[in-house]
Amino acid sequence: MLRAVADASEKDVISLGFQSVRVIMNEGLATIPVQCLDECILVTGAYGAQKTDINISLTAAGLLWTATDFIVKGLSGRSVQKANHLNEEVQLGVSTEEGDIPTSEEGVKRNPLQQLVDYNKLFFSVFSVLQKLGADDRPEVRNSAVRTLFQTLCTHGQKLSLSMWEDCLWIYVFPMLEHVSHLASTSSKDEWHGKELGTRAGKAVHMLIHHSRNTAQKQWDETIVLLLGGIARLLRSFFPLLQQLSKFSSGWAILLAFLKNSILNGSKEVALAAINCLQTFVSSNCPKGNLESSFVKSVLDIYELVLQTSPNYKSDSADKVKQEVLRGLGDLYVQAQSLFNDDMYLRLMAVMHLMIKSSMNSSDYDSELGSIPAVQRGILEIIPMLRPTTMLSSMWSPLLLELLCYLNGEESPLHRNSKEIREQNSDALANGTKRSSVEQGHINGTGTKGDTVVGCGWGILFIEKLVPIMVNLFLEAPPNERCSASPQVIQGLGRCMNTRRDNPRGTLWRVSAECFNRVVTDEVRQENAECGSDMNSYRLSRARFWKEVADVYETFLVGSCGRVLSSDVPSADSATADESLEMTVLTVFGDSVLKLQKEAPVEVLQRLVNCLDRCASRTGSLPIQTVGLLPLHCSRFSLGCLQMMFSLCSCILKTSSYPAVSETSKVSISILTKRCEVILGQFLADENDLGDRPLPSVRIEETVCVLQELARLILDIETANALNIPLYLKDALRENQSHGRAHLLSLLPTFSELVVSREPRVRELVQVLLRLISSELGLQRLT
């Protein structure tokens, strides 16, 4: 009678009939006749399927959840009863001959309800009803049914036998997945109009429907999202149990095929749900040790195929999907690091390379608007995750070289690998089109605008973010891997620093200069023993390292620092920041590189000290007519370089690496004395040329600085021996142990000319220097 009422046309009659069904399902399942339980479930399903009142349908789905609670309690009770019965058999085994054990017929008489109820059948009756409701054309009803089905499995799955799991998956879950997917693909894409609410100005006014739900297909996609979420929960909670099923392999292949198709051909919501399913599977099972390498490879295959197909994936949501796949790729490596071998890691790198290639010269203009495109943001997120583990230490070089190729404008070392992967998987790509070729660019200062694309088609904004990431990875690498990659790292950073010449307002050169300071400081302090036992390779690599360091300083320090690079007047804050960074580069150059180096070749030391000398010579090399026009920051930088040269020659700051510092001092002292002689000689010439007219303050300050530093400078014996003074003087100074002021002797002819200078400060300092010379020679006044 209640079943017949479910199909009635009167809403009140249906509601009245359903009240009785609710009473039965909520309160009467434990007491009604056994043969009626199955019928109760079917009648409840009929009320769920009726189209008159949607609230009744939704409540009916909730009643089915109540029914599963009752059924599962019965299943648990039957298991307990069976265990108790076995215990009784063991305890009473001695008296079996006397017939003390009750027969099965007697057990049925004692508790007829538990012995006659087929709980398995009832459980599957509920699933059958939920499966039918899961294909209902009303989104709310089918979504409620899907939630109920998976909630039942997740809540009571531990109490189900393996055979019941087999039936649940193959009879209900997979068919539902296939059927809903078919209905979604064949549903209408026409936009819906909301319910008419009235009229305004003679036009109908409709209820607004969100754009994500305004077509039948979008509504079905939401159901697929719920199905994928339910499957993700099953994989998270029961994967070890599911692996024990006899048909697990075929079921796993079906699921992977569905997930792959959902990502490639589904809507954005469906694709993201499929990606989340894979991510949940990996993140929940890897830490527990439930995954074998084959499962990781199968997930990697899907990500690889999706990203290879991405150039042909032209929907509006493609970038978001690619970004999530990239995040999933990084998460896969982080969670399953112990299962990765060298081949799998190289595949991972090749996939990343494909994404990098596909985002070159992107058609969007996010970078022009001051932001990074979504795909590039995804790449930047996963790169730090890819640091090789101890078992994959040999993969540091491929990783660093792969990143460096985007700074140096070179062909990626994985380019050939990515071509092979594309050829192997070309048959699997749907609707694939030939990828357009893009010519790689170089960061060589040829651009004319700050927003021009540099380096392999990347925007400057991307490279600004990539540089510190690459440097952080480099500094984390093992010493032997760092040793082999350090020359390329220095070269790549130098290319980025050189962009200052054409884009002084940009931030790429600033970021690169800061990173360069970090790298060169850390590399100079590396010990030989940390870089492996192959000393020949080590020496070759270090020679290349020092050559690249010299190239960078010659180009950046000499070519860009302490100069006016643009006719536009920068803001005060920007100018101050730039000058501070220049002085930081200079300080690191002198204190951390030249003073702490232990193995730089002599010819490289000469190049490096000459860099300082060239920068220190700028003020003195300008003619008297233009030196007064030199900006203050330029003259300050020139004086800073001059003072650094004095610091290199001083013996006061000697460190534990005395031989290396002494070598630097010996190279520097001869260059320094020549520079001092030129500066002092230029001062004399300018003073003679101007006559009674005053000298520019810049020229006076430079000369005063030189004289003051000469008075403070004290040399050690080895540095003094490198001076260009007569041998007999060197011998005499060494015997008298008065070599500390030997540099003043080489400049004595110049001092003798400066005693008649019109500048009072210059005359006073020259007198101080002459007294020091007298003291050094052991000469005193006769009276």
Q: Can you tag this structure with a few keywords?
A:
783 residues; mainly alpha; two-stranded antiparallel sheet; 33 helices; 2 strands; 67% helix
Task: Give a description of the structure.
The protein has 783 residues and is mostly helical. The chain has helices at residues 2-5, 11-28, 37-49, 54-91, 104-110, 112-116, 119-133, 139-156, 162-186, 216-242, 248-265, 268-285, 293-309, 318-335, 342-358, 374-382, 396-408, 415-424, 460-476, 479-497, 508-524, 535-560, 572-594, 602-616, 618-621, 632-649, 658-690, 697-712, 717-721, 727-736, 742-746, 748-754, 760-777, and strands spanning 196-200, 203-206. Helix 2 runs antiparallel to helix 3. The chain contains 33 helices and two strands. Strand 1 and strand 2 (203-206) form a beta hairpin. The longest helix has 38 residues, at 54-91. 67% of the residues lie in helices and 1% in strands. The chain has a domain at 626-782. It has a two-stranded antiparallel sheet. Mean pLDDT is 81; it is low at 79-115 and 424-457.
